[in-house]
Design goal:
By secondary structure, the chain is α+β, with helices and mostly antiparallel strands. It contains 17 helices and 9 strands. Among the domains are: 223 residues, Rhopdopsin 7-helix transmembrane proteins, CATH 1.20.1070; 153 residues, 2-Layer Sandwich (Heat Shock Protein 90). It is 66% helix and 10% strand. Helix 2 runs antiparallel to helix 10. It starts with 14 loop residues before the first helix and ends with a strand. Bound molecules: adenosine-5'-diphosphate. Adenosine-5'-diphosphate binds next to helix 14 and helix 17.
Length: 555
C-alpha cells in the first residue's frame, strides 16, 4: 500500500510514527479545528431539526465535505510519509469541486424552494466524473517535490478555480436576481443572508487557496476556512433571527457553543501573543451574539405578554360572540313566529275569497287571488325554513317519536304531489319492495317534511321526464330507504359536495328555479341525522338526472 519509509519530516514522529506535530503552524489548529467542530455541530443541529428536507441534507453534506477537506489539509501538514501527503494533495481538487457544487445546489434549493432540474444534475455529475478521472494524472498534480513535500498543481486546479468563479457569479445572481417563492420581506432578508454567506464562503475560500497555489505561500490558505466561518455565522444568524430551517436553535445554545469552542481551542495554544489575538478577535463576534441574545430574550418576554393579552381578549370576544349568536337565534325565532300568523291569515283569506265564501268573484279576479295565495304559501315555507334553521342551531328542535309505516307515508306524499308534477307535464311514479313491516320509529311530521322536500326538489329540478319514488328495505342492515329518482338537471360531483350546506345552491339551480334558498337540504339532512338516518345524493353528472336517498333505521 503506502510506503511509510520515505518521510517528509526529520524530527521524531508522534502517533503511530506517522504524524509530526511540530511542522504545522499553531494557527493551523486554531483556524481548522474549531471550524471543523463548529461546522459539524451546526450541521448536526440543522439536520436534526428537519431530517427529511433536502436543504438540511445539502447543508449537512457541505459541512461534512468541508470538514473532511480541512482534515485532509491538517493531515498534509503533519503527516510524515510522502505517500500520504501525496494522496492528500490529489484529493484537494475533488473536495473543492464537491464543495462548490454542493454550495450552488444548496443555495438554489434554499432560495427557489425546489430541487434542481435534471440537466443541472447531469452537469454536476459530469463535472464530478471528469475530476475523478483526472485525479491521479499529471493534469491534477504535475509532479511531486519529495524534498519539500509539495505538489505542483496542474490544470485541473485552474479548471476547478474557474468553476468556483462561475459558481460565485451564479450565486450572486441567484441571491439578488431571484425573487424566491416567498414574497414577504422577512423571507427575502433571510434568503439574502444565506445567499451572501454562501457566496462569501466560496469567494473567500477559493481566493485564498488560489492565491496560495499561485504564490506557493500556503500559509495564506490557512485563513481560507474563515470563509466557512462567514457562512456559518450567516446561517446561524438566519436561524436565530429569521428562523431559517424551522429549527428553534436558541441564541443561548449558539453562545455556549462559541464559548466552549473558544476555550477548547485555547487549550492547544501556548503562545500568549496568539492567545491575545484570538481573544481580541473573538470578543467582537461574542459581543454581537450577546446583544442578539439579550434582544431575543426581550422579544420572547414581549411576545409572551402579547400572547397572554391576546388570549384574554379572545376569551372575552368568544363570550360576546356566543351572546350575540344566541341573541341572533332568538331574534330570528321571534321574527319568524310573528311573521307566520299574518302570512297564514293572508293565504287563508285569499283562499276563502277565491272559493266564493264572501260572494261570487269574477273570472278576472281569479288569477291575482291565485298569485296572492301562491306567494303567501312560498313565504310561509321560507319562514318555516328559517325557523327550522334557528331551532337546529339553538338546539331547540324537538322530536316526537312514534311508530309508523314509512311506505304508507311515502305513498301518500307521492299522491299529494302528483297533481303538481302533472301540471308541469311530469310523471310521478310510486314503487315499493318492502320485505319487512316497513315500520320506523321516528318523528312523523319531520319524516313527512323530509320526503316532501326531496320529492318537491325533484319536481323543481326536472324540466321533463319522470320522478320515481321507490321504497325498499334491507333487513340485514335493519334500514329502510326512500329513493327519489328523477330525469332532471342532474349534478356535478362538486355540486353534490356542497348542496347539504347552509344556503348552498347548485350552479345550475338558478336557471331552472329562481326561488330557492338553499336551506331545504340542510334542514332535511339535520332532521334525518337526528332520527338516526341519513340522506345521500347521487348523479352521473349534469343533465343526467339525480337520485336522493333518505334512509331510516327500521324499528
Ligand atoms: P333550494 O332548492 O332552495 O335551492 P335545497 O337545499 O333544497 O335548496 O337544494 C340545494 C341545491 O341542491 C339546489 O339549489 C339544487 O342545485 C340542488 N338540488 C336539489 N335537489 C335536486 C335535484 N333533484 N336535481 C338536481 N339538483 C338538485
Amino acid at each position: 500500500m503506502f510506503d511509510l519509509t520515505n518521510t517528509c519530516s526529520d524530527t521524531s514522529l508522534d502517533l503511530w510514527g506517522i504524524f509530526d506535530f511540530t511542522i504545522a503552524p499553531p494557527l493551523l489548529f486554531y483556524s481548522y479545528v474549531p471550524i471543523i467542530l463548529i461546522s459539524l455541530i451546526l450541521a448536526f443541529f440543522v439536520l436534526s431539526g428537519e431530517r427529511y428536507s433536502l436543504v438540511s441534507k445539502l447543508f449537512f453534506l457541505i459541512c461534512l465535505s468541508f470538514s473532511l477537506l480541512l482534515l485532509n489539509e491538517i493531515i498534509q501538514w503533519i503527516a510524515a510519509p510522502v505517500s500520504i501527503v501525496m494522496l492528500g494533495w490529489m484529493l484537494i481538487s475533488l473536495f473543492r469541486l464537491i464543495i462548490a457544487i454542493l454550495t450552488v445546489y444548496f443555495v438554489f434549493v434554499y432560495i427557489k424552494g425546489k430541487d434542481i432540474d435534471f440537466w443541472m444534475k447531469i452537469l454536476f455529475s459530469a463535472l464530478y466524473i471528469i475530476t475523478l478521472l483526472f485525479i491521479s494524472t499529471d493534469l491534477n498534480i504535475i509532479y511531486f517535490d519529495i524534498e519539500n513535500c509539495e505538489g505542483a498543481p496542474g490544470v485541473l486546479w485552474d479548471f476547478i478555480n474557474l468553476i468556483a468563479t462561475l459558481s460565485s457569479v451564479y450565486l450572486v445572481y441567484l441571491t439578488f436576481a431571484h425573487k424566491g417563492i416567498q414574497e414577504n420581506s422577512q423571507d427575502r432578508k433571510r434568503n439574502y443572508l444565506v445567499g451572501v454567506g454562501a457566496t462569501g464562503f466560496i469567494i473567500f475560500f477559493f481566493l485564498t487557496s488560489a492565491y496560495g497555489d499561485l504564490t506557493e505561500i500556503y500559509d495564506v490558505a490557512i485563513i481560507g476556512p474563515i470563509g466557512m466561518l462567514a457562512f456559518m455565522v450567516s446561517i446561524t444568524f438566519a436561524i436565530v433571527k429569521y428562523r431559517a430551517f424551522n429549527i428553534k436553535l436558541a441564541p443561548p445554545v449558539v453562545l455556549v457553543l462559541c464559548l466552549w469552542i473558544l476555550v477548547f481551542s485555547l487549550l492547544f495554544i501556548n503562545d500568549p501573543t496568539i492567545i491575545h489575538y484570538i481573544e481580541g478577535g473573538t470578543l467582537i463576534p461574542l459581543g454581537f451574539i450577546g446583544i442578539s441574545l439579550i434582544k431575543s430574550i426581550r422579544r420572547e418576554i414581549n411576545s409572551k405578554e402579547e400572547a397572554q393579552r391576546l388570549s384574554s381578549d379572545l376569551q372575552k370576544a368568544n363570550v360576546r360572540l356566543q351572546e350575540l349568536d344566541k341573541a341572533k337565534s332568538e331574534f330570528v325565532s321571534i321574527a319568524s313566529h310573528q311573521l307566520r300568523s299574518p302570512i297564514t291569515a293572508i293565504s287563508g283569506y285569499a283562499s276563502l275569497i277565491r272559493e266564493g265564501t264572501y260572494g261570487e268573484i269574477t273570472a278576472k279576479l281569479r288569477e291575482p287571488l291565485d298569485r296572492i295565495e301562491q306567494s303567501a304559501r312560498m313565504m310561509a315555507s321560507l319562514i318555516e325554513d328559517y325557523l327550522n334553521v334557528s331551532r337546529i342551531e339553538s338546539g331547540n328542535m324537538k322530536y316526537n317519536y312514534s311508530s309508523f309505516s314509512l311506505h304508507t307515508e311515502a305513498n301518500h306524499i307521492s299522491d299529494d304531489l302528483r297533481p303538481n308534477a302533472l301540471k308541469l307535464g311530469l310523471v310521478l311514479l310510486y314503487k315499493q319492495s318492502v320485505a319487512g313491516s316497513g315500520l320506523v320509529s321516528a318523528d312523523i311530521g319531520k319524516t313527512q317534511q323530509v320526503i316532501h322536500n326531496l320529492v318537491n326538489n325533484s319536481i323543481k329540478y326536472t324540466p321533463k321526464g319522470a320522478i320515481t319514488v321507490y321504497v325498499h328495505d334491507d333487513l340485514s342492515k335493519k334500514r329502510i330507504y326512500v329513493d327519489i329518482i328523477d330525469t332532471g338537471i342532474g349534478m356535478s360531483a362538486e355540486t353534490i359536495n356542497s348542496i347539504f350546506g347552509k344556503f348552498s345552491r347548485g350552479s345550475k339551480a338558478n336557471s331552472v328555479n329562481v326561488t330557492g334558498t338553499g336551506l331545504g337540504l340542510y334542514v332535511a339532512l339535520k332532521m334525518a341525522l337526528a332520527m338516526g338516518g341519513n340522506i345521500t345524493a347521487h348523479s352521473e353528472g349534469e343533465d343526467k338526472g339525480s337520485t336522493f336517498t333518505f334512509e331510516l333505521p327500521l324499528g
